[in-house]
Amino acid sequence: MASTVRRVAYYTSWSIYQTNYQLKDIPFENITDIVYSFANLVDGVITVGDPWADTQFDYGPQNVFNGTAGAFGYLNSPTGDARTRNPNIKSHISVGGWTWSKEFSSMASTQQGRSSFTDSVVNFVEQYGFDGVDIDWEYPGK
């Protein structure tokens, strides 16, 4: 059985505030997947982490997905820069991370919490056009 090699890159929401490496600098032609971090977890549901960077920054009209601009639009618009450079790129949203993991344990402790979270993830992915989700839970049990 042949293995499929995945070349995955991560890009953080706060990178927009630094001038040395922007979304346009990512070598989309050379990767198979991009993981954008981070979405937040509020009251047990996934939410936009940095509204300006994630959904509002203007990368141009071609980089809008489902009415959403920002990094989400840049990564997921079928006619946008990322998908033009690599039509087969898969985008994923990472939720949690060092700053936004504090609610994972309480959310995961009940069936209702887990169900609400998974429902919110499905809605989030559909709304913003992501292909998958990365859960960056730092650290289970805390």
TrEMBL record:
Protein keywords: Carbohydrate metabolism, Chitin degradation, Glycosidase, Hydrolase, Polysaccharide degradation
A single GO molecular function term of this UniProt record: endochitinase activity
UniProt keyword Hydrolase, yes or no: yes
Gene Ontology biological process: chitin catabolic process; polysaccharide catabolic process
The keyword Hydrolase appears for this protein: yes
Positions of the GH18 domain: 5-142
Domain of life of the native organism: Eukaryota
Enzymatic reactions: Random endo-hydrolysis of N-acetyl-beta-D-glucosaminide (1->4)-beta-linkages in chitin and chitodextrins
SUPFAM superfamilies membership: (Trans)glycosidases (SSF51445)
Family that this chain belongs to: Belongs to the glycosyl hydrolase 18 family.
UniProt-recorded name of the protein: Chitinase 1
Native source organism of the sequence: Smittium mucronatum
Upper classification of the organism: Eukaryota, Fungi, Fungi incertae sedis, Zoopagomycota, Kickxellomycotina
